[in-house]
Structure formats: C-alpha cells, structure tokens
Request: fold
Amino acid sequence: MILVTSCTTSQNAQSDGTDSSSLSIESYQFEKDVCSANEYFDVQELEFPKLIHSYTPSPLAPITPNEILFLLYENTPIPVFKEIGLLNVSSQEFQSLIEISPDTEFQLEYADASIIVYKEIDTVSNILTLCYYSFKDQQSHMIYAFSHEYPNTNKILVWNNCIYFDDVVIQDGEVTDTALYQYDITSDQITVFAESTQQPLAFKDSILFIRNNTSEHLFTLETKEKADLLTLS
Reply:
C-alpha cells in the first residue's frame, strides 16, 4: 500500500484588504502495490532532428515501431503549421505526407499504418473540415464540412473501415438537434448512423453513443441494438 501526500497553497482576501496564504494537505491511499515501470516497459531514449526542412518538428503519434508521425511548424513567433510527415527513427529520413495550407490549423484525430484522420480549420473563414490521408493511394481526402455552430470538442471514431463523427442539426438558422454520421472509406459514402446522438465509442462488437432525450432532459448511453444502457444525467 502506498500513501501519497500533496500540498497546495491558496490566498485568501482579508477584511483589511491584505492577503494571507493557507496550506492544505491532501492524502491519497492506494490499496495496491505500485511497481516500477521498468518492470513492464522497455524505455528507450530517442533522438530527433532539431530541424526538418528548416522547420521545427513536433512528434504526434507512433505509426510503426520504427516510424513516428511529425508535425513541422515555423516559429514566427506564433507557430505556423507547415506539413505532416513520417520520420524513420533508424535512418532519420523524413517522408512528407500532408502539406498544410496557409491560414490553416491541423488537428490530429487518429493515425495508424493505413490512415491518418484529421481536422483542418480555416482560420479566415472559420470552416472546419474532416479529412483523411490514405497511405494506400498517398493522397488526402476531404470527408465533411462541419456546421459553423459545431463546437469541435467531440472525438472521431475509426472502426471497421468506417469513420464515425457527429455534428449539430441546423433548422431555420438554429441548432435543433445532433446527428451521428458514418463515412464508409471503401464506398466514399456518408450516411446518418443515428439521429439525436453524439460521441461515438467502440465497445466489443458495437458502436456506443450518447442520446440526447430532450423531452426527458436526460442523456443516455445506447447502441443501435439496445437503448437506455445507462442513464448519464
């Protein structure tokens, strides 16, 4: 059993206008033994180039045991995204994959050895698009342009050669609902997977999602096969 103690300080305003500091101590008790990570992981320090194509590299995600996805950016002094590519750790060779247009921000959603799913935000028009890069044809593909009212906080799910994402539903200029969409990579088709839902999640052989039951002011966790698995609020 391990006991961990943390200390925090806070400032409190007094009636005479001065501040006083107070110290609070919180203890956390772990019921299981804590083991060294070295017993389970082989930790290896990697060296990356300080500059790639004259830009600063930032690692995003491992793609294979020997390849890491990198974002290249320029400090001007605000970071300006330039391109996405693969760095071979052994040879230190860099392969350019995605060129990022000016006035565009890049947001990685998912990456593996066959596909990179990402969002692009046009900082001028504020248009948010969902895209993917295919290692098979070595090209980027635009999937969907989100509504302007979309908050861009929900996650994307890649599962069984499909990409699942949600968006708000707009009627007469107002947000009236949400919808969960399915994009089939093979057929290049988008369909509505479930209405009044959001936040897709894969669990075993099913897609879970959150349904907004506006009439009852409740959120429920469901699948297409079974409703009301869990009431969230």
Q: What stands out?
A: The chain has no helices and 18 strands.
